[in-house]
Every structure is written in structure tokens, then in C-alpha cells.
């Protein structure tokens, strides 16, 4: 069926920015995954019950602006760097080198309606007041 559509398919424009516009990103391919992350690190970084994120290969994302980074090691042992704007303080993305990926926060998208979560992850850390969508798969950690 996709072969029939061929050139008729238009790629969504996954671009975005921080609140003040000083930090921007552009993605040259479709996201590999979209999910809501309920880990405590995402909760603290976003000031919310979870982070709605899109995962891209690192090579597909162009980052511009005066970006500051905060590094930490995930529970899985991956070193992650959270990129944020030093002017408005807005967290915009997370990058990792091994494996090379870039996590973009859905609210930072120029068109946030492009975000369609496939699942909920790290729900073991979800707050009791966070009533999340039970119609999509939920994982205590990440999917195996």
C-alpha cells in the first residue's frame, strides 16, 4: 500500500524551539518512537507528571542556538545530556552518544499535534495523581 502512495506521502515537519526561540531543532526524518516517560528524572526536568517525547536518530536532528547541557547516567547505564536554553530555562531535548539518539519534548514542537504516543514507560514511577491514558500499552520500565 505504501508503494502505491510513493511520492504522494508528505513528511511531517518535526521542528521546534524553546519558549523564547533562542534554541531550535529540525528533524530530517520521522521519529523512531513516541511515548510518555514517567521516570522521576523526566518529571523533575519538565515539572510535570511525565514527559511526552519523540525519539529520533541523533544524525537526523540539527540543533542550533546557545545550548547548555546537564549530564546524568540513566538506570540502564547510558550517559544522557539534557539540552536546555540558558535564557528561558526551557528543557528542549536529550541526547545520547551510545546509542546515538535525540529525544525531543513534544511541547517544544512547532506543531505539537504531530505527537501521537505509542505507549507509557517507567509507569512504576508515575505519580498517583497522574491519570494517564490506559488505552495504550503501559510498561513499568521500558519495553523489553
Describe this structure as you would to a colleague:
The chain is mainly β and 144 residues long. It has one domain (19-125): glutathione-dependent formaldehyde- activating enzyme (gfa) (Alpha-Beta Complex), CATH 3.90.1590. Helix content is 8%, strand content 36%. The chain has 2 helices and 10 strands; from the N terminus they run αβββαβββββββ. It has helices at 2-5, 40-46; strands at 14-17, 24-27, 33-37, 51-57, 61-64, 68-73, 79-84, 91-97, 100-105, 119-121. The strands form 2 sheets. It has a 7-stranded mixed beta sheet with strand order 6-7-8-9-4-3-10. The chain has a 3-stranded antiparallel beta sheet with strand order 1-2-5, with no helix packed on it. A hairpin with a 2-residue loop joins strand 8 (91-97) and strand 9 (100-105). It is globular, with a radius of gyration of 15 Å. 28% of the residues are buried. Mean pLDDT is 88; it is low at 1-10.
